[in-house]
Amino acid sequence: MSEYIERNALIKKIQRNYGFSEEWAKELALSVNAADVAPVIHCKDCKYFEQDTENYGVCIRFNDTTIADDVVKDTDYCSRAKERDEKHNTNRS
Q1: Within this chain, do residues 62 and 77 fall inside the same structural domain, yes or no?
Q2: Rounded mean pLDDT of 8-21?
Q3: How deeply is 48 buried, as exposed, middle or buried, from its count of CB atoms within 10 A (0-12, 13-18, 19+)?
Q4: Distance (Å, whole) CA 47 – CA 69
């Protein structure tokens, strides 16, 4: 599995550990190809997830569609997830 780091964290680490200037550290960091990645939002953190049991819930976004399996694990994820607003909690407790 690949590992990813934030470019700004790399720049700061190069400066701190090797004493290079910010300009040189940026040049070095930019010389490495970056991966095109996005953060994963797990179902338990998605605004469309409603908790049903301890580890399972329902995706309310797909509840009325032709997708038969709308039951999801809280650790599942999909490309359509939207991060839950901390004030908006849809979990049924």
Answers
A1: yes
A2: 94
A3: buried
A4: 18
